[in-house]
Design a protein that fits this description.
Rossmann fold; single chain; two-stranded antiparallel ribbon; 8 strands; 64% helix
């Protein structure tokens, strides 16, 4: 009988892993085009440029980006753990493919997603948590989590989700009196997460600290917790020793334009608490889970009360943070998924939980229907992107020196050409982004030439004026007009002055070489 139970559990695990692999690779045709590999965000190309540098000179700490904000570059906040993970995978794939670096970048996040699901399966199975299959199913199908683990998105968010899932699981086990092995896992997970980023992990770490002492009191100051803290400090200290301290105040020229720039970044937008995005991401679990936790908390005294309280506070806190910035949505989804087993204990029998599970996922199913077949304008934009990227890659092959391009195009051009760009996708590149905006909005060619000379630019990329001028005007002000440089370069190349020589062109883009 035990053998049959093991077989069923193994089949269930394989089914969940297969489901997650299916969801995270559902839009593979956006990544694999004409035998080449493309990434889904501009930030991904910046990450991959770092990995290429790391493979060229291993064991280095990349503290300065010379491929953006040329010629000054930027002192980056990005750290090495995600770079190292991609570089390691690329090294493994090198004997099997000439595109091993791109393949590693494409597959790293789905693999980290599978590792996250496997880690939570091991934790929930060992602890015999009720409702664990609902937790794992939500993890595999939540659109916001799938976006974080998506094929072709080598972003450190996927690594953070894995580390935070392990760290939170170890946290809850330590609250229940786990031993030294769990303390070491806790320390390694949180230390590495804080090394990777001092934003989301630091906020969650700071949230759990007072909550832990309030809920556990003296039990939060045992030798086991001391060992956990030592492990975390050792790992994080090693990160600081290798990568340096990556927190600094923004420069005045960055701070001045950051509000306008941030309004153009989708993940920095806010959401109202009643937004339809929440049921699309979480189904009705986003409402049911905290409600059941609150009911369990106030129903009667129980040894699990501190754990239920901590789980509820974590869900509500990440919900509030997501209302503030959409980028917190995947961490909210992780918190809700990991809270499901504790909320499920309130429900009697098996029929009611099964019914709520099916009903709770209905909005997620509707969201997936839209994701797989967006239709209308969304589908048109997707098709345009798939047509644009190969053309942009062809243009990048003609870039043989420092270039100026719209900030959302600069990272892929820098990656493919190996040349530095004036702009970049990070807020640290804002000085270059602002200069590029002023160049495209200029109506005096002498001013435009002066800016290119000051920046040492040899090539200029022109994109659709509707995108370039509108985005530039939102950043630095002004009203787009056909007389502006960005419009002339794209729409009327015959009117371009002779010191800008046409170097290449496609239906979407034009490249000019700057003649001294």
């Amino acid at each position: 009988m035990s053998g049959l139970r093991t077989l069923v559990r193994g089949a269930a695990l394989l089914g969940l892993l297969g489901l997650m692999l299916l969801t995270t690779t559902a839009r593979h045709d956006d990544v694999f085009l004409d035998g080449r590999i493309y990434f889904v965000d501009a930030d991904c190309y910046s990450r991959m440029t770092r990995v290429a540098h790391l493979l060229a000179a291993p064991w280095q700490s990349i503290r300065h980006h010379d491929f953006e904000n040329f010629p000054a570059g930027v002192a980056t906040h990005t750290t090495i753990p995600m770079d190292a993970a991609i570089a390691l995978l690329a090294t493994v794939l090198r004997p099997f493919s000439p595109q091993s670096l791109d393949l590693a970048g494409a597959w790293i996040s789905p693999l980290l997603g599978l590792a996250t699901l496997l880690a939570l399966w091991l934790w929930s199975t060992r602890e015999r948590l009720r409702g664990r299959h609902a937790m794992l199913f939500l993890l595999a199908v939540s659109p916001i989590l799938v976006q974080a683990f998506r094929l072709g998105r080598p972003d450190h968010q996927s690594l953070l989700l894995l580390l935070l899932a392990v760290g939170l699981a170890a946290e809850w086990n330590l609250w229940r009196g786990a031993g030294r092995r769990t303390a070491l896992v806790w320390g390694a997970a949180w230390g590495l997460a804080l090394w990777t980023s001092l934003y989301e992990p630091l906020v969650l770490f700071a949230l759990l600290l007072p909550l832990r002492f309030a809920a556990l009191r003296r039990a939060a100051a045992t030798k086991t917790w001391g060992l956990a803290w030592v492990a975390a400090l050792v790992v994080f200290g090693a990160g600081v020793a290798f990568d340096g301290w990556r927190v600094s105040a923004p420069a005045p020229e960055v701070a001045a334009f950051f509000p306008a720039w941030s309004r153009q970044i989708g993940e920095l937008a806010s959401l109202p608490p009643w937004s339809a995005q929440f049921p699309a991401w979480l189904g009705w679990f986003g409402v049911l889970t905290p409600a059941l936790l609150a009911f369990a908390l106030f129903r009667r005294a129980t040894p699990q009360r501190p754990l239920i309280l901590g789980t509820l506070v974590l869900v509500l806190a990440t919900f509030a943070l997501t209302c503030w910035q959409i980028r917190w949505g995947c961490y909210l989804a992780l918190a809700v998924a990991m809270a499901v087993p504790f909320a499920w204990n309130v429900l009697p029998g098996r029929l009611l939980p099964a019914g709520l599970f099916v009903v709770g996922l209905w909005p997620v199913a509707a969201a997936w229907d839209t994701l797989l077949d967006p239709g209308g304008e969304a589908q048109q934009l997707r098709l345009e992107r798939r047509a644009e990227l190969p053309q942009l890659r062809a243009i990048a092959a003609e870039v043989r020196g420092p270039f100026l391009a719209p900030w959302w195009l600069s990272p892929p051009v820098a990656y493919w050409s190996g040349q530095p760009g004036v702009t970049g996708s990070s807020h640290e590149s804002l000085p270059g982004i602002v200069d590029a905006a002023r160049f495209y909005l200029a109506t005096d060619w002498a001013d435009a030439q002066s800016l290119l000379t000051r920046r040492g630019v040899r090539f200029v990329l022109a994109d659709d004026p509707g995108r370039v001028l509108g985005t530039a005007a939102q950043l630095v002000g002004g009203q787009p007009s056909p007389q502006m440089v960005g419009a002339v370069l794209s729409a009327t190349p015959a009117s371009v002055p002779p010191w800008l020589r046409p170097a290449a062109g496609t239906p979407f883009f034009r490249l000019y070489e700057v003649i001294p």
